């Protein structure tokens, strides 16, 4: 995935440019691949549900109804 596409994923939520994303990915140790049609980063996109489940100190139990029918 290119840094521009990664920046586009965050576009509605925050203003960030692809150069800073590339620098951050390099600092974190992600691998960059150069092809004839561009530079790509080896990353795995995760759905929002998986991200919410991995955030520490978040209590999801307050959103659960206590009188569920099953």
Low-confidence stretches: none
Counting H and I runs of at least 4 residues, what is the number of helices?
A: 3
**Anisotropy-based shape:** globular
Query: What is the mean predicted local confidence, pLDDT?
Result: 79
From the alpha carbons, calculate the radius of gyration and give it in angstroms.
17 Å
Number of strands: 2
Described by strand count, sense and barrel closure, the largest sheet is:
2 strands, antiparallel
- How many angstroms does the end-to-end distance come to? 42 Å
Order of helices and strands: HHEEH
Helical coverage, percent range: 25-40%
Strand coverage percent: 5-15%
What structural category arises from helix and sheet content? alpha+beta
Strand order of the largest sheet: 1-2
Give the structure's gist in a few sentences:
This protein is of the alpha+beta class and 70 residues long.
Account of the protein in words:
A hairpin with a 2-residue loop joins strand 1 and strand 2. 37% of the residues lie in helices and 11% in strands. The chain has a two-stranded antiparallel ribbon. With 70 residues, the chain is of the alpha+beta class. The protein is globular and about 40 Å long.
